[in-house]
Amino acid sequence: MAKDLTKFKNLREAYCAVHRCRNEDFERKVLWRCFPLHVQPFALVFWVIERTLFQRDLESIRAAGQARSSEELESVVNEFENLMGVERGFRRGTLHICIRGRLLGRRLEPLLPSIIGFQAAPALELPIRAIPLDSREPGSLTIRRLRKFRDDIIQGREISNALKESGWTESDLRGLVSAQAPGRPDLIWLSEYLGQLDELSTLRRENERLTRVAAELSARVLELEERLQLSK
Q1: pLDDT tens-digit series, residues 39-65
Q2: CA of 50: how far to CAs of 38, 46, 47, 91, 219, in Å?
Q3: Is 126 in a helix, a strand, or coil?
Q4: pLDDT category, 86, cuts 50, 70, 90?
């Protein structure tokens, strides 16, 4: 007889029942569903060589498994995203071979209605591009979108393409980052990155100006040398 899908105590119990895996396999099963496809082959190499490197990832999955509400799950996801934003180790910080918090949330969130006492949110969250800018309020949706934007940039995506997908203008992005970054290390990183882009643009413009000035001076020197040669 199928187990009543409204009687689970937490997400771990629900996941194991729905996906028919043993309780002790929960962390490992979820781990491999939370790696982006292009990361999985490299993650497997690290897993074989030294799987203790994934301890933080497994701890986050374990904590998410104890969640019994969307708020508890979101708290775990946000904490893990913050960790990714501040950790600068070779595997996680340089190669980005770690699970993605947004994928962890996406894998477990559909199971929330099967948790005892779960209450659905009063309104459906729409994609941010479908919400008029003047009606958007700072909150978890905006923060998640900003974190996804940051992840895309970290993975090498062009900022213009990421902006197009988000529905934000560059001015929108800077305003949202400025409002949401305080107290969130991962978004502080994004704020600093945007600041570095500004500095780089300024340096490029200054370099172009100096190049033009140098070319003009060089032309004047040549002109003066020609005049001197003619005057001899």
Answers
A1: 888 888 888 888 888 888 899 999 999
A2: 20, 6, 6, 11, 62
A3: coil
A4: low
The gap from C-alpha 190 to its chain's centroid, in whole angstroms, comes to 9
CA-to-CA dists, residue 109 to 25, 80, 221, angstroms: 19, 16, 70
CA distance 99 to 115: 24
**Distance, C-alpha 159 to centroid of its chain:** 13
Label residues 93-107 b or e (16+ Cβ within 10 Å = b): eeebbbbbbbbbbeb
Type and span of the H or E element at 92: none
Output the CA torsion sign for 135, 138, 139, 141: positive
The sign of the dihedral angle between the CA atoms of 146, 86, 151, 153 is positive
Average pLDDT over all residues of the chain: 78
